[in-house]
Amino acid sequence: MTTTLTYFQGRAGDHNDLAIPGALALAKWLSDITGLNPVSVGEPAPALNTGWSSELTAAMPDLKKMKAHMESVFTHGGRSLAATSRCAVSLATLPALAKYRPDACIVWFDSHADLNTPSSTESGYLGGLALSGPTGLWDSGLGSGFSLASVILVGQRDLDAFEKKCIAENSVAYIPLGDNYLEQLRQNINGRPVYIHLDCDVMEPGIVPTDYVHPQGMTLNDLEQACSLLAESTIIGLEIAEFQNAWTPDSDPVSPSELINALLPVINKIVKPN
To answer: β-pairing, 173-175 with 235-241?
Structure first.
């Protein structure tokens, strides 16, 4: 079994132009510590910052490339490390995973659930539909394959009414940060293989640059502890989304080293599972 390091460089519903270079920065650091040669998918283009439908149309060619690439990664039991720029790239990665590993659970670290649909979204942001497409709540054109029973939400603290209802009616595993959340995570994994999605806005503001900012997030120590727990399981892959390479378009680049260090228990398990 092999591990593939991928970074996505196409459009994905971006509000600004900071996540594409952010994914590149992550890939360089991950390459340095793992020895893996990074594979680039997609071509950089300026952010459109418009509604989900126009964003999806613009992103679709590169998202289709990403889906095909990820299918090739998972075909023979391969594992994935990926810097996915924006959460919307999961519209491509998760259906590819589902084709080969429908037994996996998706641990979704994020300040949002990303379970809105085109008819429910209040913001119109494509990233807010990133998990609902792969779980079949709407047809993105990229497929689905996972049920909501496969999803474990961790750290969400900005849920709208539609998402709260969806979580309650479908008994989606939802683990807010707080006492005993790591044990709840272990219990909900329940021996299943794990694929991890990390949206950097699950972190406490000020730790890494990201588009959305919501207080009462994870610390680097929290993240490292969660990754140590996750490393007890079979890890199929990790995708890191929404890391921006700078706090503002005019500020100096920010290193992802501290974030990557917190993720090392999982990264090491993916690269050297035995």
So the answer is: unpaired
Coil vs helix vs strand at 9: coil
Tens of pLDDT, residues 241-262: 999 999 999 999 999 999 999 9
Beta-carbon count within 10 A of 170 CB: 14
d(CA 238, CA 256): 15
Report the C-alpha gap between 117 and 42 in whole angstroms: 25
- For 241, phi then psi, to 5°, come to -120, 155
**Whether the predicted model's global pTM rises above the 0.90 cut:** yes
**pLDDT tens digit sequence for 6-31:** 999 999 999 999 999 999 999 999 99
CA distance 263 to 274: 18
Within its chain, how far is the Cα of 202 from the centroid?
11
Query: Could you tell me the CA-to-CA distances from 78 to 70, 111, 150 in Å, in that order?
Result: 10, 29, 20
Mean pLDDT (whole number) for 50-60: 98
